[in-house]
Structures are given as structure tokens and as C-alpha cells.
Amino acid sequence: xxxxxxxxxxxxxxxxxxxxxxxxxxxxxxxxxxxxxxxxxxxxxxxxxxxxxxxxxxxxxxxxxxxxxxxxxxxxxxxxxxxxxxxxxxxxxxxxxxxxxxxxxxxxxxxxxxxxxxxxxxxxxxxxxxxxxxxxxxxxxxxxxxxxxxxxxxxxxxxxxxxxxxxxxxxxxxxxxxxxxxxxxxxxxxxxxxxxxxxxxxxxxxxxxxxxxxxxxxxxxxxxxxxxxxxxxxxxxxxxxxxxxxxxxxxxxxxxxxxxxxxxxxxxxxxxxxxxxxxxxxxxxxxxxxxxxxxxxxxxxxxxxxxxxxxxxxxxxx
Length: 318
Known about the structure:
The protein is an alpha+beta fold. Helices cover 36% and strands 25% of the residues. The protein has helices at 95-110, 114-127, 133-144, 149-157, 167-181, 219-235, 250-260, 275-280, 303-317, and strands at residues 13-20, 30-35, 41-46, 51-58, 62-68, 71-77, 80-85, 90-92, 208-214, 239-245, 266-268, 287-292, 295-299. A hairpin with a 5-residue loop joins strand 2 and strand 3. Helix 1 packs antiparallel against helix 2 (114-127), helix 2 runs antiparallel to helix 3 and helix 6 packs parallel to helix 9. The longest helix is centred in the C-terminal third of the chain and has 17 residues, at 219-235. The radius of gyration is 22 Å and the shape is globular. It starts with 12 loop residues before the first strand and ends with a helix.
């Protein structure tokens, strides 16, 4: 199967992707090649003898994901022979994949410095406008920033028109619009999980409500839990914390709650539950809402900034 993404013609021809695994644990599993932007399956192959091969024709390079055995990795599909050693998590053998590996290395060096990461993604999409890395880097640039829909439109006006057709860009615009509808000063918007459990079921009148969007696999989410526990320890029943487990398997959520000693209620919806994040325009977690008297007071605060706001709000209620 072949897939054409509307980017400049940079890699016409045949491609061959060879994936090798450290052992035979994936033998018999199906390996899927998917388009990063649309999520569509491009091709698939069966893993045998700790190896799988996918061959095809590509008109234009495109960002892809390889999925197997519940795991995934990203790389560029382009003309040439692409080698993936699964445990290394990188693709080699072609120009764009080497450029992507260099960017990954840069991001590893940056670590948790969000401002430097934002700049790295900005530089990456500017330098790769005409190839598959450009749309991918732009997506992360938009995710790292809380742009308004107007600001995103301004960014897109300087890029080729095809960028507006990317599903992830369209989603970023929709998230920006929802973010504006649920900005500080707006009344909170209720939601429910597939079981009918609602956010409003757990909000407490007359208290400072802290709503934490998180997941068990999210390192920054886990690091924020002790900060929330300190706030609860300081103010007791004058604050009310509610967790919202998103993009996560229930069993993993329960295990994390035990490991982190989370005592407040957590609303769960499963790994495919996106209703709350879509509603609030949340593209990255942890994301924390502070709600008082049915009104969103703040969102996106963590650590000392969150603690300082709660100090102020609780003090005003005394």
C-alpha cells in the first residue's frame, strides 16, 4: 500500500523498512505502519524470527509511526532502505531520519527546559517546511504553546497552504477555540465518563477545587502529585482535589494511584477517552484547572505557582 501526503516531492521511489527485535517475544504479532498525521494504516507485516519487513512506493516523504505489541515509534518514510532496531527507537539509513535523530538528540539534551524545546521545534519546522519533518515539528510547536486560534492562523499564513489540511493542525485550531471557551473567568463546563460519572459529582461548593488532568505513564504528572498532596496537607478540607485520568488504561491508573498514594477521587474513562481534553482544549498533561464558585479561576499552573494561587484563594475565603 502507498500513501501520499501533500508535501514537496522529495523522495519519489521505492522504500524498504526492516525492523529487528531483541528477541522473539513479538513473533506472530502484526506490525503496522501508520501515517502520523491521519492515523491511517499504510501497510502491515507479520513479525517472524525477530524481524519484519515492509516495502512499498512513496511519492512524497511522510512522517509515520510503527506500531507493534502495544508499543510505537516515529520515523520518516522516504525513498531508500530504512533500518530500525526496535530497542534503540530510531530509524537509520536515510537523510531525513538522520535529521530526525539529530533533533531527538537535541531534545534529550534540552531535557525539561520547555522554552528551549519550543525554540528547537520552531527552528525545525522552519528548516523543514518542504519535507516530512516540518509538519511533525509544527505540531509539537503548537502543542507546547497555548496559542489562540488567531495566532495559529497567523503562523499558518506564512506556511504553504497544504499545512491547513493537516488533521493535527486542524485539531490544534479546534483545541485553541475550546481553550478560549474554557479560559479563566468562564464558568466551568461539565463532562462525564462512559459510566456516567460527572465532574460536577465531585466539585465541592464553597471550596477551592483543583482538577488535575493526568495519566499514569506521564512523568511530569507523577511529579506534580506530591505538590497537590502538600496543598491538601496544608489546607485540609478547605481544598478539594479531583483527578481526571485521561489517555490511560484503568489498571494502570489504579496501580499509579496506589504507588503515588492518591487519596482523592479520580474520574476514569480508559485509554481512548478524549472527551474532557477535547472539551477543555488540553493537548498536554498534566493540566490543572482551579475552580471556585463554578468559575475557572486559573488553568495550567503547577508547583509553586499553583500553591501561591491556592494560598491566595483560601485566604480570601477565611
